[in-house]
Design brief:
By secondary structure, the chain is mainly α. It has 13 helices and eight strands. The relative contact order is 0.15.
C-alpha cells in the first residue's frame, strides 16, 4: 500500500502545472459538494415534518405510549386519519421554554385561581402573584407538562385538541350551531349562517369558531361582544383580540382600541374580521389545531421565536374548547366524519405519561 502512494505522488510530480491545477480544482469541488450534502442532511434531520400515520410507521421506542392510543381511537373511528407532526424539539426544553422566565412580563401559561388542581400546579416563583384581571396565576412546569403531553390528549374526550381546523363540506348546519349558540350572545339563525358562510370562505371549522367564541366570551357574552364605546364609537371584539392587561379597564381598552382601528362597529363585522384574524395569523402559519394555537411549537419560517406566538394564556383553553367541539359534533351526528388529527411528537419523551 505504501508503494502505491509513493507511485501516485511521483506521477503527480511529473504532471504539467495546468493538469495539477485542474486536479486541485476538482478535489476542491468534490470537498465542497460533500460538505454541502452533509449540511443538507443535518438540516433535513432537524427540519420539522408531517407524516401520515399508516399504523406501522411510528417508532414506539423513541415515542413511547403513542401508538396504542392512536390505534385505539382509529379502531373506534375508522374514518379518522392521523398525521404525525415531528416537531424535532426536545421535550424538556419545550417545557422549560413554556414555563416561568424572568425575561417575560407575563407568563405564557396561566391558570385561574378559582379552579381546583394540585398545589404544585402553581408556579413556585410567582406563587402569590396574580395576572390579567387579578384572577390568574402562573402555571408550573408540572401543570404545563401535563397539559402538553400528547398522550393525555389521545383520548375520546380530548382528541379534538388535535383536530385539523379545516372546513368539512356537509357537516355544519344551523341546527348544529344552535346546540352551542342557543341562549348565548350568538343565538339566532342569522348569526349561525354568517359564521358558517364565513368559515366556508376561510376554510375554517365552523364549530371550532363557535366554540372559540363561547370560550372567549362565556355564554352570556361580555362588553366586548355586546358593544363597548371607544372614542365615541360602539365597537365589538368577540374574539378578545389584543385583550390583555393587568386590570379589567386595561384589557377592555386594549381590545376596544384594536376593534376601533379595524372598524368593527357591529357584531357581524367583528365576527368576520375575527375569523380572518385567526385564519391569517394562526392557521396560515401552521398553527392549525387548538393545541398548536396554544402551544407555539411550529417552526414556520416566521420572525417570532417559538413559544411566543400563542392565541391565549389560559392553559386549560384547548381542553375546554375541544370538549365543546366534540359535544357539538356528537350532537350533530357528525362525530365519525372524515377528520384529520395532527399529533405532535417530541424528542426524548419520558416513558411515563406526564
Amino acid at each position: 500500500m505504501k508503494n502505491v502512494f509513493i507511485n501516485i505522488i511521483r506521477k503527480l510530480k511529473n504532471l504539467s502545472p495546468k493538469v495539477k491545477i485542474i486536479i486541485a480544482i476538482t478535489i476542491i469541488v468534490i470537498i465542497v459538494l460533500i460538505l454541502a450534502l452533509t449540511i443538507a442532511i443535518i438540516n433535513d434531520r432537524q427540519k420539522q415534518k408531517y407524516v401520515a400515520y399508516d399504523g406501522e410507521n411510528l417508532d414506539e421506542e423513541k415515542y413511547p405510549g403513542y401508538k396504542v392510543l392512536i390505534d385505539e381511537l382509529k379502531s373506534k373511528h375508522p374514518n379518522w386519519t392521523f398525521t404525525l407532526f415531528y416537531t424535532k424539539l426536545d421535550w424538556n426544553e419545550v417545557i422549560a421554554n413554556e414555563g416561568h422566565s424572568d425575561t417575560r412580563t407575563n407568563p405564557l401559561n396561566l391558570i385561574p385561581d378559582y379552579m381546583e388542581y394540585p398545589e404544585n400546579w402553581v408556579c413556585e416563583v410567582d406563587k402569590d402573584k396574580t395576572f390579567d384581571n387579578g384572577h390568574w396565576l402562573c402555571a408550573s412546569n408540572i401543570a404545563i407538562a401535563h397539559q402538553m403531553d400528547p398522550r393525555n390528549i389521545l383520548t375520546e374526550e380530548n382528541i379534538f385538541q388535535f383536530k385539523e381546523l379545516n372546513y368539512t363540506d356537509g357537516v355544519y348546519t344551523v341546527e348544529g350551531m344552535s346546540y352551542i349558540t342557543d341562549n348565548t350572545f350568538l343565538e339566532g339563525e342569522s348569526i349561525a349562517n354568517t359564521l358558517i358562510e364565513a368559515c366556508k370562505t376561510a376554510n375554517l371549522d365552523a364549530y371550532f369558531v363557535a366554540s372559540r367564541l363561547i370560550q372567549e366570551q362565556g355564554r352570556e357574552g361580555t362588553k366586548l361582544s355586546k358593544g363597548y364605546e371607544y372614542n365615541g364609537v360602539v365597537v365589538y371584539n368577540p374574539f378578545n383580540i389584543k385583550a390583555s392587561g393587568n386590570s379589567t379597564e386595561e384589557i377592555l381598552t386594549n381590545a376596544a382600541k384594536y376593534a376601533y382601528e379595524q372598524g368593527w362597529n357591529s357584531l357581524e363585522k367583528a365576527l368576520l374580521g375575527g375569523i380572518d384574524f385567526v385564519k391569517e395569523g394562526y392557521i396560515n402559519v401552521g398553527q392549525n389545531t387548538l393545541y398548536l394555537q396554544k402551544f407555539d411549537v411550529v417552526n414556520f419560517d416566521r420572525d417570532e421565536d417559538l413559544y411566543e406566538h400563542q392565541y391565549m394564556q389560559n392553559l386549560f383553553a384547548p381542553e375546554s374548547e375541544a370538549s365543546n367541539m366534540k359535544e357539538i359534533y356528537q350532537n350533530a351526528d357528525a362525530l365519525d366524519g372524515n377528520y384529520n388529527f395532527i399529533i405532535p411528537l417530541y424528542e426524548n419523551m419520558p416513558s411515563e405519561i406526564q
